[in-house]
Amino acid sequence: MPQKSEMGPVMPATHKFRPKLRSLPAASLLLCAGCSAAIAYSGQDISKLTTKSHVHESFGEPENCGTKIDYEEKPTEFEEYRTRRKISEPDVAGIHLLLGLETLGLFEPFNLLSQAGITTWSTLFGQTVRFDYDDFGKVKQVYINGTRMENRASLP
Questions:
Q1: Chunked in runs of 10, what are the mean pLDDT values of the chain (156 residues)?
Q2: Can you give the pTM of this predicted structure?
């Protein structure tokens, strides 16, 4: 119960901190600056490579090429390239932003370190990028280190 003084009721000490506590959620959003998402989004956008000729212009001659049987039991032509360049992954960037917002930035340090580690590893030691083509030479599927691009982004 507040005490009375000559100037009116005396407020408890916790009253001073309430405005600061109200701004805590807004301040924690600053931690979710999206640095990990920016790293994941940066690099070459390989979704723009829609045909075999575009892929050859960008990556040069393939390291490995051949034909495989796909899930529809049709032969599918593929080409593999070994590269050290950074590949843009918009789906992964979206997941990092989503996790950052849902956790009010608390997950961002983990995301940042993991994305920086993945980028450093792929830059130093390289990665395998495989393009599957349809019968007309259009890019059907893209794999990075054996994982489909769509499957590289998932919530933990």
A1: 56 60 64 81 93 95 88 84 94 88 83 92 95 93 91 76
A2: 0.74
